[in-house]
UniProtKB/TrEMBL annotation:
GO terms for molecular function: dihydrolipoyl dehydrogenase (NADH) activity; flavin adenine dinucleotide binding. The keyword Cell cycle does not apply. This is PF00070 family, FAD-dependent NAD(P)-disulphide oxidoreductase. Binds 1 FAD per subunit. Residues 357-463 form the Pyridine nucleotide-disulphide oxidoreductase dimerisation domain. FAD binds at residues 55, 118, 148-150, 315. It comes from uncultured Blastococcus sp. Gene3D superfamilies: 3.30.390.30, FAD/NAD(P)-binding domain. Keywords: FAD, Flavoprotein, NAD, Nucleotide-binding. The keyword Amino-acid biosynthesis does not apply. Disulfide bonds join 46-51.
Amino acid sequence: MTHAGEHSYDVLVVGGGPVGNTVAARMAGGGLTVALIESELLGGECVYWACIPSKALLHSVHALHAARRLPGSREAVTGQLDAQAVFAHRDDVTHHHDDSGQAAVMASLGVTVVRGHGRLDGPRRVQVTTPGAGVLSLEATHAVILATGSTAHVPAIPGLREAAPWTNRDATSAKDAPRRLVVMGGGPVGVEMAQAWRALGSEQVILLQAGRHLLPRLERFAGERLLAGLQADDVDVRLGSSVVGVDRPVPGGEVTVRLADGSSVVGDELLVAAGREPATADLGLRTVGLEPGEIVTVDGTMRAEDSDWLYAIGDVNGRALLTHQGKYQARVAADALVARTRGQQPSYVAEADTFAVPQVIFTDPEIAAVGLTAAQATERGMRVRTVEYEFGDVPGAALEAKGYSGRAALVIDEGDHMIVGATFVGPNVADLLHSATIAIVGRVPVELLRHAVPSFPTKSEVWLMLLSEYGL
C-alpha cells in the first residue's frame, strides 16, 4: 500500500451523493476550500439506484393509468407498456451511470473531487483509500462532514442473505422483469416497486407485510387507499405475513420464502424492502470516540454532539431519511459552518426536521403527507381536529379522471388554529403538498388561509372544501 501524500482543505466532505454535493457546493460558494470524497458515483444512491430511477419506472405506469381514466384517451390505449422503452428512459435519466457531468459541475464550483473510500483518522483527518490502493491523507482546517447516506437493511432472517435477494439497487436497475417477484416489506420502496414491476411484466407480484396495515406511520386511510390501488393492479398483498426463513438451493434459481403461519411463497426473485441503515460501519468512527454502524447524533446545525469540528448530514444522522431533507440539512450545515469560520453565530437551524417533514410515495394512488398525523399530534399533547374531503367531489379532479378517487385531510391544532399535518391521497396529488408544507412551516392561521384563493378548476380547490368542513 502506497501513501500518496497529505493535503489540507478548509472542509472535507465524505460522501458525494446529493447531500454531500449540496453542502460542498454551498461551502465553496462561501469561500471555503472543499474536498469531496466519493467511493462510487457522484450523485449517489438517489441519482443512480433510488429516487430517480424508481420514479422513471413509475411515471410511465402512471401515465398509462391516467390515459385509461378518461373517455377518449382510454379508447386510444390499445397495448401494454413497452418495458424496454421504459428501461431505456430510466437509463437516460440516470446518465447510464456516468458521473462525469456531476464531476464537471463540482469542478466548475471549485470543489476538489477525491475518488476513493474515506475513513476518519482522528480529529479533522480523513484517510482515503484510492482506486489504485494508495492512501491519501487529508486534513481539515475547520470541519469534516459525513454525508455517506444509508444502505438497504437486510434483516437477520435464516437464509436471507445467502439467497442473494434484490435490494433497491437491483429493483431499480434490472433489465428484465422476473416472472414471479416476492416483495418483503410494505414501506415506500416495497409498494412502489411492487406496482412498477407488475406493470413492467412480472406475471405475479406478492407483497408481504408483517404488520396489519400498509404505511403504518401515516394516516390510516392512506394505507387503505393504497391497498385498494395495489389490488386493482393485481398485486397480491398479504398483510400480517412475517418472514421466518428463506431458501434458495441453487444460486439464481427460484426462492422459497417461509412465513410464521407455516405457509410459504415461491418466486424467481425476492426484493427486500425492510428499511435503511446508516452507512457508518466503515467510516473510522472509533478513531473519534463514536460507534461504527450507528447514527451520528447532531444538533440543529448538524454538528455532532460534543464536537466542534465533526458534522453529519442526511441519512447518517437519522433525523429524516429523505433526499430533500438531507439537502435541507446540507444548506443548514454549510451556512452554519461558513458563519463560524467568520467568527459569527449561525443564522438558523434545522427546525423543519422536527415537525414539517414532507414525503411523497409515488404509487398510484400517490400519497403525499407532511407534518403530524392526528395520532402523533395527540401523543404530543395537542388538542386537534381532523377535517377530510373526497377528491372526487372537487371539479378539477373530476375533470382529470372519470371516477377520480382520493382523499385529503388536515390535522388542525385547536389551541392555536394552525395546521400541524396534512395528507393527500389520489392520482397526481404530489404537487399539492408544498402548499401544506408552507402553511405548517409558516404557522399560518387557518382563518387566514381562506384568503389564499385556489384557481378554478384545479384539484387545489380541495383547500376550500377542507376549510369549509372546518367551518370557515
